Amino acid sequence: MGTIDGAALVEASGATFHVDVAGKGTPVLLVPGAGGDARQYGELAQVLAQNHTVISYDRRNNGRSSQQPDWSETSVDQHAGDVIALLEMLGTPPCVVFGNSTGALIALAAALKAPGRFTGVVLHEPALLGVLTHPDDAMASVQPVIAAGVEAGGLAGGAEAFVQFAAGDAAALLPPEFLEDLRKNARVLLEAEFGAFAAWRPEPESLAKMSTPLTILSAEQTAPFFVEAAQWIASHAGVSRRTVPGGHMGFLSHPGEIAKEIDAGS
Fold first, then answer.
1. Residue 240 half-sphere exposure, CB side, CA atoms within 13 Å?
2. pLDDT tens by residue, 14-34
3. What is the residue-wise DSSP string for 133-187?
4. Selection from 10, 14, 29, 34 nearest residue 145 by Cα
5. How many Å apart are CA 153 and CA 94, to the nearest integer?
6. Closest among 29, 220, 227 to 127, alpha carbons compared
7. Strands (DSSP E) found in 25-111
8. pTM score, two decimals?
């Protein structure tokens, strides 16, 4: 590992990232989903840090990472490249990577790009909408929530409404500072990331050839389309999908249970 212990700004892949490192032991990287902010993983990181060196970061143009005002286009592959570049800059040995929702897509894409960087991949509720039989059903459940939020509070209201909806019963556990920066960076989520992430899908042949151990987790309280997406990955990768407590952002309400799955995948 590098010399970071605590929080630091790290330059990699043409951007500057806020990175948090805590604990000691085998390394685990946490890739955030909507909002792109490591603070959503605060409780999970604390539990994992008892046995691991935990690396969490704010994604490009999100949270406390540097902002590029003219940034309007991105892709899952760009964010996967950021993950690999960050690990190289930090000098991190091969690690377990965990991602929730769109963070799971980034984690998976990074492992497919650079399998030697990872000893395990744990995907929780992957938002892989591009493989759904009826993708419009998924969007139909989300779009009215965002639209109502935008009507009440502009892009900031739409972004917060979306994440509150995604968190479900665990929404009250979202850190206030995370929500504050989410509102400030609403354009990134709704205009740069939302459509690009929804369109991404891995090649089934690449999943079938994966050599890195892969764990696929679905939440007990989730929408059918998230189960379908998780099962699609599991089937093509030749692994079993497991069910864990909580909802789509169950790491907020059940950090101990999610940490155990990450331990098992390390």
1. 2
2. 999 999 999 999 999 999 999
3. SSHHHHHHHHHHHHHHHHHHHHHHHHHHHHHHHHHGGGGGGS-HHHHHHHHHTHH
4. 34
5. 43
6. 227
7. 26-31, 52-57, 95-100
8. 0.96
144 Rama sector, left if φ>0, alpha if ψ -120 to 50, beta otherwise: alpha
Q: Kindly state the helix (H) or strand (E) to which residue 233 belongs, with its residue range.
A: helix 224-237
Pairing of strands 6-12, 15-22: antiparallel
Angle between helices 135-167 and 176-184 (to 10 degrees): 130
Residue with tokens 């990472």: 65
Name the class of domain 6-264.
Answer: alpha beta
Find residue 26's DSSP bridge partners.
52
Length of the chain counted residue by residue: 266
Contact 138, 114 (CB under 8 A): no
Determine the residue type at 169. Answer: D
Nearest-Å Rg of the Cα atoms of the chain is 17
The structure tokens 């500057």 sit at 16
Q: Tokens for 115?
A: 């399998």
What is the per-residue pLDDT across 213-261, written as a single tens digit (0 to 9) for each? 999 999 999 999 999 999 999 999 999 999 999 999 999 999 999 999 9
Task: List the structure tokens of 134.
Answer: 């009826």
**Which 8-state DSSP code applies to residue 220?**
S
